[in-house]
Design brief:
- The chain is of the alpha+beta class.
- The chain has 6 domains: 59 residues, Helix hairpin bin (Helix Hairpins), CATH 1.10.287.610; 230 residues, D-amino Acid Aminotransferase, Chain A, domain 1 (2-Layer Sandwich), CATH 3.30.470; 84 residues, Nucleic acid-binding proteins (OB fold (Dihydrolipoamide Acetyltransferase, E2P)), CATH 2.40.50; 75 residues, DNA polymerase, domain 1, CATH 1.10.150; 78 residues, DNA polymerase, domain 1; 68 residues, BRCT domain (Rossmann fold), CATH 3.40.50.10190.
- The chain is built from 25 helices and 26 strands.
- Helix 1 packs antiparallel against helix 2 and helix 3 packs antiparallel against helix 9.
- The protein is elongated, with a radius of gyration of 31 Å.
- The structure holds a DNA duplex.
DNA sequence: GATCCTCGAGTTCT
DNA sequence: CTCGAGGATC
């Protein structure tokens, strides 16, 4: 057997197994991207070696065989599958083929829709009444899931207005993210197994033997095509078909647009890809359909896929790799965070080698062990996330991950409070990791903002015993700095100058820089506003600190305890002697501005200024800045590339402002 | 006592 | 961005 033939056979075997897991068990072993990659390789091989193509190849049929629990139903008209496009060039080719076949020189009008990651179904109506619903199955025959489908609210039991004698409506059953999260939260509370993704949850729900269970699952449907159609007139474009659906009371996707030619398709694709994370449901690409029905008929179909439509998939945002090790990092508060060390892998355009595992509970939940094959995703296309492990691929000798009994940095005991997710190093100031992280926090941009005082420099200074507390920073000698690695005289001078500049700061920044547990920027600002001076805060009792808004007993105790400790008092006094200062005044009633009482949330990229500048300006006028959108938000200011916050604002009906709206706010008007 | 809203803390890569 | 936990609210 040639090497190509052997590879083809191996690919078919793998694809058949994945098909079984995906279609029959509803429990895929690998991400869709991996499946798509295998299929792509097989297609390429078969294209290069046509003699290897056989009727049983997964490229030659729509895969999946019906299960046994439900009756079989034959579709009046087969449910088609779609050819996939992965790159822009594939779409260009598709459009060229369409125009060649239509002998069209003009641009073709396409109907573009999101491609939902759910389950295709066909709902049959006779004289407007719901008769049955079938899954897609192998395209010709599916399973009768009528009893379950009847429980889905977005499938009407009767069509509005005049309906044809018989019509099959095709759509996608899916579970919105919100419902999925709720379902998993309930499952977690009940100690049940969690669903891996919304698609699996929807599949599981639809294939329940007890419709009462399905009824409790948050399923929804968008309709997008017609199958068998007897009586009446079929609309002459895809767009009008969807309008007819709406008239009958059937949901169609509101993101659907008519676009012209390849340029229009690709623009739609990019626009939707950018907003993908903010949609309420999971999509894995977009679909372009030739809009005119006459053109669709002229184009016809090849095997089971129409020539007049294509699915343009989003690039793989998940990848498989191996978990090499798990290390525990120590943060400034002593929290031990397990970090996954991975075999480097490309995900979403970047090589990922590390991913946080958050805490031990998370490791338990995901059942991760060292040596496992794991699925990596870039959450929000930025932060790498270990999605899950594949226990079925676990090698013998895969090691369990154990919380170390002692701190990996200083050797002090590790303690985990009852009911707390985090484990902490008890070494405190003894632990060099905690010292280094505290110093980094102190010097960070939002604290004292000491330019050039980065991780490497702090590491060296601490390791050489030149630096232990923030107070030491301002007593560093330029000659000593210049003697360090990668530090010339010039760099040393720059650091000294940066230290000098940072001495002039503000009380909120200073309080934040101290790193008191649970005191972040917002709480530091509240404390500063309430007490006005550091002296007043230092002298305050727990009861007095409790009067600060948003401060409860726990934070009050932390604050009081911090200032009671002699070591901390000494550091503060030394800092002040070194010249660290700020303008102090008596506590001021919060500045009354024209925007008093408003809570504004900023999102996206603004053209005229940074978000920070806009935020400062709004606060200066008395507005409160919100970090997330809630029903108490007055306005959301959305720049370009706004994401989930914009979406949430729309859901909650919060007024959304553009930059001109922001300008109005800054003039003191309320749009 | 439950639920919602915020905030804090830790993290990745270019 | 995500998770966890503190605080406020009903």
């Amino acid at each position: 057997m040639s090497t190509a033939a052997a590879r083809v056979a191996a690919l078919r075997e793998q694809l058949a197994r994945h098909d079984y897991r995906y279609y029959v068990l509803d429990d895929p072993e690998v991400p869709d991207a991996e499946y798509d990659r295998l299929m792509l390789e097989l297609r390429a091989l078969e294209a290069a070696h046509p003699e290897l193509v056989s009727a049983d190849s997964p490229t030659q049929r729509v895969s999946g065989k019906p299960g046994t629990e439900f009756d079989e139903v034959r579709h009046g008209v087969p449910m088609l599958s779609l050819d996939n496009a992965f790159a822009d060039d594939d779409v260009v080719d598709f459009d060229r083929r369409v125009r060649e076949r239509l002998k069209s020189t003009a641009e073709v009008e396409y109907c573009a829709e999101p491609k939902l990651d759910g389950l295709a179904i066909s709902v049959r109506y006779e004289r407007g009444e719901f008769v049955s619903t079938a899954t897609r199955g192998d395209g010709t025959t599916g399973e009768d899931v009528s009893a379950n489908a009847r429980t889905i609210r977005s499938i009407p039991l009767r069509l509005r207005g005049d309906a044809p004698a018989t019509v099959e409506i095709r759509g996608e059953v899916y579970m919105p993210f919100a419902g999925f999260r709720r379902l998993n939260a309930e499952a977690a509370a009940a100690g049940e197994k969690l669903f891996v993704n919304p698609r699996n949850a929807a599949a599981g729900a639809l294939r329940q033997l007890d419709p009462a269970v399905t009824a409790k699952r948050p399923l929804a449907v968008y309709f997008y095509a017609a199958g068998e159609w007897r009586g009446g007139t079929e609309p002459d474009t895809q767009r009008r078909l969807l309008e007819q659906f709406n008239a009958w009371g059937l949901r169609t996707n509101p993101e659907t647009r008519l676009v012209m030619g390849v340029a229009g398709c690709l623009a739609y694709y990019r626009a939707l890809a950018a907003r993908r994370e903010s949609l309420a449901y999971q999509i894995d690409g977009v679909v372009y359909k030739v809009n005119r029905r006459a053109d669709q008929d002229a184009l016809g179909q090849v095997s089971r896929a129409p020539r007049w439509a294509v699915a343009h998939k989003f690039p793989a945002d998940e990848a498989l790799t191996t978990l090499r090790d798990v290390e525990f990092q120590v943060g400034r508060t002593g929290v031990l965070t397990p970090v996954a060390r991975l075999e480097p892998v490309m995900v979403g355009g970047a090589t990922v080698t590390n991913a946080t595992l958050h805490n031990m509970d998370e490791i338990e939940r995901k059942d991760v062990r060292i040596g496992d094959t794991v699925v990596i995703r870039r959450a929000g296309d930025v932060i790498p996330e270990l999605v899950r492990s594949l226990p079925e691929r676990r090698p013998r000798g895969a090691k369990r991950i154990v919380l170390p009994a002692t701190c990996p940095v200083c050797g002090s005991a590790v303690a985990r409070e009852e009911d707390e997710a985090a484990a902490r190093c008890t070494g405190g100031f003894v632990c060099s990791a905690q010292r280094k992280e505290s110093l980094r926090h102190f010097a960070s941009r939002r604290a004292l903002d000491i330019e050039g005082m980065g991780e490497k420099l702090i590491d060296q200074l601490v390791d050489r015993g030149m630096l232990a507390t923030p107070a030491d920073l301002f007593e560093l000698k330029p000659e000593a700095l210049a003697a360090l690695e990668r530090m010339g005289e010039k760099s040393a001078d720059n650091v000294v100058a940066a230290l000098e500049r940072s001495k002039h700061t503000t009380l909120p920044r200073f309080l934040y820089a101290l790193g008191i547990r649970d005191v972040g920027e917002a709480t530091a600002a509240s404390l500063a506003a309430h007490f006005g001076t550091l002296g007043a805060l230092r002298a305050a009792s727990v009861e007095q600190i409790l009067e600060v808004p948003d401060v409860g007993p726990i934070i009050a105790a932390h604050v009081h305890g911090f200032f009671a400790a002699p070591a901390n008092r000494e550091v503060i006094e030394r800092l002040q002697r070194s010249g660290v200062h700020w303008n102090e005044g008596p506590p001021v009633a919060r500045a009354v501005g024209p925007l008093d009482g408003l809570t504004v949330v900023l999102t996206g990229t603004l053209a005229s200024m940074t978000r920070e500048q806009a935020g400062d300006a709004l606060q200066a006028m008395g507005a409160k800045l919100g970090a997330s959108v809630s029903k108490r938000t007055s306005y959301v200011v959305a720049g370009s590339d706004a994401g989930s916050k914009l979406k949430r604002a729309q859901e909650l009906g919060i007024p959304v402002l553009d930059e001109s709206g922001l300008a109005q706010l800054l003039r003191g008007e309320r749009p």
